[in-house]
Prior knowledge:
The protein has about 180 residues and is an alpha/beta fold. It has helices at about 20-25, 65-70, 75-95, 110, 165-170, 170-180, and strands spanning about 1-10, 25-30, 45-55, 100-105, 115-120, 130-135. About 30% of the residues lie in helices and about 20% in strands. The mean pLDDT is about 85.
Amino acid sequence: MTLMPTILDLCGGTGSWSKPYSDRGYYVEVIDVLNGDDIRTLKSRDMNVQGILAAPPCTDLAGSGARWWKDKGHQALLDSLAVADACLRAVWLYKPKWWALENPVGRLRTYYGDPTLIFDPYEYGDPYTKKTLLWGDFTIPERNIVEPTEGSKMHLLPPSPDRWKLRSATPQGFANAFADANP
């Protein structure tokens, strides 16, 4: 059994949401297909899971891509929901002290109901907008509102191989505030 308090970062791609935890000495385990780990095949292990951060890919769930949903077909939705549901299975399996599942405005609200928190990065010190939804059982972080001087900068990013990383990275102001509120 891992006795050290563990933070599971599910579909954590960039690791930006869990970084404040690793910086504070927590053991963070990132489970992501980019590392060769598929959350859908997560098996039970004896672990001391303090918290779970889940950010399933939004490619086929975010409202910003709605114009392509029909062309992608029903299977893309089913695959995306399977990943999100697997994140919730991990919550059930490990029964952490707190957990949160993140996704932008889009389809998940239809399946999971109203989120626990809706925020924009500027509400936590990062000067841009990108409405984000969180479901879960966690303490809502204290806000640090700044002027959104960069506007909706995610929509202005030019096409590039790293565009997905830039768009999916958790704003550091929010990540730090979340870690402060949910040790």
